Amino acid sequence: MQLKNLGIAMVIIGIVMMAYTGFNYVTTEKVVDFGPIQVNKEVNHPINWSPIVGIVLAVGGIVLIVTNKKTT
Predict the structure, then answer these.
(1) Coil, helix or strand at residue 36
(2) Phi, psi of 13 (to 5 degrees)
(3) Which residues of 21-58 are buried (b: 16+ CB within 10 A; e: fewer)?
(4) How far lies 48's CA from each of 15, 32, 33, 53, 64, in Å?
(5) Which of 7, 32, 34, 72 lies in disulfide reach of 65, CB 3.0 to 4.6 Å?
(6) How far out from the chain centre does Cα 46 lie?
(7) Is the dihedral of CA 57, 63, 65, 68 positive or negative?
(8) pTM score, whole prediction
């Protein structure tokens, strides 16, 4: 039962990773701190991955689900 749940989770995560190939997050960095004067800069940090990673996860999840059904 545990492998089946893991397989289902892997398939779902794989499909999401195929649909969304990345995301951005923003941090604020202090550029100037001169007494009461502060200048901040927002910096984008993109995180990207290949859709092939999602395909591999989905296929691996399907394999776990199928092999779990054969053993039980």
Answers:
(1) coil
(2) -65, -40
(3) eeeeeeeeeeeeeeeeeeeeeeeeeeeeeeeeebeebb
(4) 15, 30, 33, 11, 26
(5) 7
(6) 12
(7) negative
(8) 0.70
* Burial class, 68, CB count within 10 angstroms (exposed 0-12 / middle 13-18 / buried 19+): middle
pLDDT at position 34 is: 87
**The residue to which tokens 């995560």 are assigned:** 13
Give the tokens for residue 65. Answer: 């689900």
Q: What one-character DSSP code corresponds to residue 72?
A: -
